[in-house]
User: What shape does this take?
Amino acid sequence: MAEKFKIIGGETLRGEVSIGGAKNAVLKHLAATILVKGKTKIYNVPHLTDVDIMLNVLSDLGAKYVYDQVEKSVEVDASNITSITAKYELVSKMRASFIILGALMSRCKEAIVALPGGCAIGERRVDFHIKGLEALGAKIKIENGYVHAKATKLVGTDIYLDIPSVGATENLMLAAVLAEGSTRIQNAAQEPEIIDLANFLNTIGADIIGAGTSEIIINGVKAENLHSAEYTTIPDRIEAGTFMAAVVATKGKAIIRNVFPAHLTFFNDKLIKMGANIKLVEPTTIEVNCKSRLSSINFVTQPYPGFPTDLQAIAMTLLTTANGVGIITESLYENRFMQVPDLRRMGADIHQDRNHAIVKGVKNLTGATVAASDLRAGAALVIAGLMASGETTVEKLHHIDRGYEEFERKLQNLGAKIRRYNDEIENQIKGVLNESRL
Assistant: This one.
């Protein structure tokens, strides 16, 4: 049954919210657990659709897992890997599951992995993954929608990435953990999630240095050097940015806990330039507030530490009612303005020219029925609904559920008028009420 959000806009958000574990980090930690012939426990794991998909991938490979929703932990036992095939039905649902390729090659020296799916935000080819694995010694062929990779052994080498691809950096890190000798990845991605994966791998016995810089060195270790461990995932910087934006958008004031402010330096700077106030309360706690109408800004999405593409749609929503004209340049994905038509339905004045969006602030947005086209566009439309006058319905919540745990509950705790429903149940309830009146 298709679920929807019903939002009554105009409420000022106030209170406290705690950010969950980073989706884009924990998915890679889960993939990495298959390197260990034993149990690995990960804490700060959000309960998300994407996490469920990755756990199903692991289970299909023969690993066992226990998810504790109260403790927010997952224990994976990868003692017995019985399959080297990551099936299309699973991998096609979530691009991040393609990271299993590097992990399987590291442990089994063979992998059959379906080409990935995920949000339709633009072309994200796997060429860099393939070329990097071939440089390590893998023989690869692609047929029938699957990547078939095999190697007698993997041998460390120098790998240069034409662009600092996050997925390619992670896949090659995983593949190189058990390679002979040292592997050097140049022009590597520098995102906090890359650092967190390196820290996780080092915790289980790998030898990785340089994560967070453009050059990462992985010194190969023996399989017997890898061991069981416990690890806590970093907070989700994109979820944190989303709630910061929601508070600012409604001219509210809130305490946001379990956040690493350094991971959001560029985004925070832009919010401050728009008129928000951000104060560090504790090392992992910030206070965000805004009392007046925002001012427009210009920005360009860039690989970390630049402005994150995952917060572009949300920032665009803020610009829709800001003073002046803001120009957004999306430099990473060609289809990442998919929220524009729905924002226009709500009264936004946005002109799009290829990878540029010119946003002229209007007095206010008005409620409408809109649909999430991808994960971050969905969150942006929810914030638009909180800003708008009247009632907004957001459809296709399966996109939002991929990356936000208990999104509506957290917003409700801040004072938002938002609820989840589906038409079938609503109609059943109305039918029962009508019968009772008769």
Q: What stands out?
A: The mean pLDDT is 94. The domain at 3-20+235-426 is CATH 3.65.10.10 (UDP-n-acetylglucosamine1-carboxyvinyl-transferase; Chain). The longest strand covers residues 3-8. DSSP finds 15 helices and 24 strands in the chain.
